[in-house]
Design brief:
Elements (H helix, E strand, L loop, with lengths): L1 E6 L3 H12 L4 E8 L2 H11 L5 E6 L5 H11 L3 E4 L6 H11 L2 E4 L14 H4 L2 H7 L2 E4 L7 H12 L3 E11 L13 H8 L3 E5 L2 E5 L5 E6 L3 E7 L3 H9 L5 E7 L2 H12 L8 E3 L2 E3 L1 H8 L13 E12 L2 E12 H8 L3 H18 L7 E4 L5 H10 L4 E4 L7
Parallel strand pairs: 1-2, 1-4, 2-3, 4-5, 5-6, 6-17, 7-12
Antiparallel strand pairs: 7-15, 8-9, 8-12, 10-11, 11-12, 13-14, 15-16, 16-18
Helix pairs in contact: 1-13, 3-4, 7-14, 13-14
NADPH dihydro-nicotinamide-adenine-dinucleotide phosphate binds next to helix 1 and helix 13.
Length: about 400
C-alpha cells in the first residue's frame, strides 16, 4: 500500500516498527531515521528478512531543512514522529513544506519550559487544511487510545458524557529502586509538574501529587494513584460536548515517589542549566544519563498495566457508567518485542494511527486530535494488533 518514514528509534519506535513489519500489506516500505543511525541499522537487521522493505537514515529532527531533504528523498505517505516532543514543530514544518501527512504520540513541549500544551500544534490547523494534508496528534495510549475510547463511548454508549476519569496503572516491577519506563527526561518533567483537571469549563490546578486516591484495578488489585496534568484532557474538554469534569490519575510505587522527592529536593530534576567546572549542564539531562535506559527494562519487568477510562453520563434519560480498559502483560510484550508494556502500549497505537491515514480510513485535512475521527476501525485494530480492550458496565467510581 505505501511507505512510512519513522523518526526516532527508541523503545516506542522499535515496537511500532515491528508492528509495521507484521502489517506489511499496509506498510510495504519503512524508512527509519534518527539521530543515531546505528540504532536504526540494528533494528533494520532484525526485521529485514520480512516482506517490508526497510531503509535507514541519519537525521537531526530539529533541523527543518534536513527533514525536508529526507522527506523529498524518501517520499513517504506518512511521517510517524516517534522522537521527542521537542521535535514536533520542526517535523510538522517539514511535512507542510513537502505536503506529507503527519502522526505523533506526544504534544509539543519547548525544551526550556516544562509545559506541554496543544496551542503550538493547533496553530498549524489552517495551513495543514490548505495543504490538503492530515496531522493526527497523540496516537499513543494516553494520549491516544484514551481519546479513541472516549469517542467510542460517545458514539455507542452515551447521549452525553459528563465525567471522564482516565486511570493509568503500571503495576510492573523492574527490580530497580528507581527507573522510568519511558524517556526519563520527559517522564520526570511530566510527574514533577503541577497537576490539573478540567471542571465546569476551566482548569483547576493542584500541587504535584497533591490529590491521591486508591483504586482496585481489574486483574491487578488496589494501587495508589495520583492526579496529574495530562495532555489529552485539553483536547477532550473541547471535543466531548457537555463534559463537566475530566481527571487523569497515574499509579506510582512508594520507592519511585521517595526517590523522586529526594532528587527534586537536591535539584537533580531541574531543567535550568548550571555551570559545572566551566561546562553548562542541565541536571535532569545528567540524571537521564545515570538512569537505566527504559528500553533495557524489558527482560526485568514483571506484572501488568491497566489503562482505561471511566465514563459517566446519560443514555435515554438514565444515568449510566462504563469503564473501557486494556490490560497488558509486561513479560508477554517482552517475549514478542524485547520491550516492556509501556513501549508496547504506545508503539501499537502509533502504528495503527499511521495505518488509519495510509489506508485513507481517516482522512481529514487539517490538524486533529484522535477523538475527532471515527473510533470504530481503530478499536477493531487494537484487538487485532495486540491491545484487546474490555468494557465493564458497573465499575467502582473514583470519589
Ligand atoms: P526514547 O528516548 O527511547 O527514544 C527517542 C528517540 O528519538 C531516540 O531514538 C532518539 O535518538 C531520537 N531523537 C531524539 N532527539 C532527536 C533529534 N533531534 N533528531 C532525531 N532523533 C532524535 O523515547 P521513547 O521511545 O520512550 O518515547 C518516544 C516518544 O513517545 C516520546 O515523544 C514520548 O513522549 C512518547 N510517549 C508517548 C506515550 C503515549 O502514551 N502517548 C507514552 C510513552 C512515550 P538517540 O537514540 O540518538 O537518543
Amino acid at each position: 500500500m505505501g511507505k512510512v518514514l519513522i523518526i526516532g528509534c527508541g523503545g516506542v519506535a522499535k515496537v511500532a516498527i515491528q508492528k509495521c513489519c507484521q502489517n506489511s500489506a499496509v506498510f510495504e516500505e519503512i524508512c527509519i531515521a534518527s539521530r543515531t543511525k546505528s540504532k536504526c541499522d540494528e533494528v533494520k537487521s532484525k526485521f529485514s528478512g520480512g516482506k517490508t522493505k526497510i531503509t535507514t537514515a541519519q537525521v537531526d529532527a530539529n533541523d527543518v531543512n534536513a527533514l525536508i531533504a529526507l522527506i523529498n528523498q524518501e517520499k513517504p505517505d506518512v511521517v510517524l514522529n516517534l522522537a521527542l516532543p521537542y521535535q514536533d514543530l520542526a517535523i510538522m514544518d517539514a511535512c507542510l513544506a513537502t505536503k506529507t501527512n503527519y502522526v505523533d504520540t506526544a504534544n509539543y513541549e519547548p525544551e526550556d519550559t516544562a509545559k506541554f500544551e496543544y496551542k503550538w500544534q493547533w496553530a498549524y490547523r489552517a495551513r495543514f487544511e490548505q495543504a490538503g494534508i492530515t496531522a493526527l496528534l497523540g496516537s499513543g495510549f494516553d494520549p491516544g487510545v484514551t481519546g479513541v475510547f472516549s469517542a467510542y463511548a460517545l458514539k455507542h454508549s452515551f447521549d452525553e458524557i459528563h465525567y471522564i476519569d482516565i486511570l493509568d496503572c503500571n503495576a510492573g516491577d523492574h527490580g530497580y529502586p528507581f527507573a522510568t519506563n519511558f524517556n526519563p527526561e520527559i517522564n520526570i518533567r511530566e510527574v514533577s509538574a503541577n497537576g490539573s483537571y478540567w471542571e465546569d469549563g476551566k482548569w483547576v490546578e493542584t500541587k504535584p501529587m497533591e490529590i491521591e486516591r486508591t483504586y482496585d484495578f481489574p486483574e491487578i488489585g488496589e494501587k495508589k494513584m495520583y492526579l496529574l496534568h495530562h495532555e489529552e484532557i485539553e483536547s477532550l474538554a473541547l471535543n466531548i460536548p457537555g463534559i463537566k469534569r475530566i481527571r487523569f490519575f497515574m499509579t506510582f510505587g512508594e520507592s519511585y515517589l521517595t526517590h523522586l522527592r529526594c532528587l527534586q529536593n537536591v535539584g537533580m530534576t531541574s531543567i535550568k542549566p548550571i555551570d559545572y567546572e566551566g561546562m553548562q549542564i542541565v541536571p535532569l539531562q545528567f540524571l537521564k544519563a545515570l538512569l537505566p535506559d527504559p528500553a533495557s527494562l524489558g527482560p526485568r519487568t514483571k506484572g501488568k498495566t491497566n489503562i482505561g477510562c471511566i465514563f459517566r453520563g446519560m443514555k435515554d434519560g438514565q444515568e449510566k457508567t462504563t469503564y473501557i480498559y486494556n490490560i497488558c502483560d509486561h513479560q508477554k510484550c517482552y517475549q514478542e518485542t524485547g520491550l516492556q508494556a509501556v513501549a508496547y502500549t504506545t508503539g501499537v497505537p502509533a502504528m495503527i494511527g499511521a495505518m488509519m491515514l495510509m489506508t485513507g480510513k481517516w482522512k481529514k485535512p487539517g490538524v486533529h486530535n484522535i477523538e475527532e475521527f471515527d473510533p470504530d476501525p481503530f478499536m477493531d485494530a487494537l484487538g487485532q494488533w495486540g491491545l484487546p480492550w474490555q468494557e465493564s458496565q458497573h465499575p467502582d467510581l473514583v470519589d
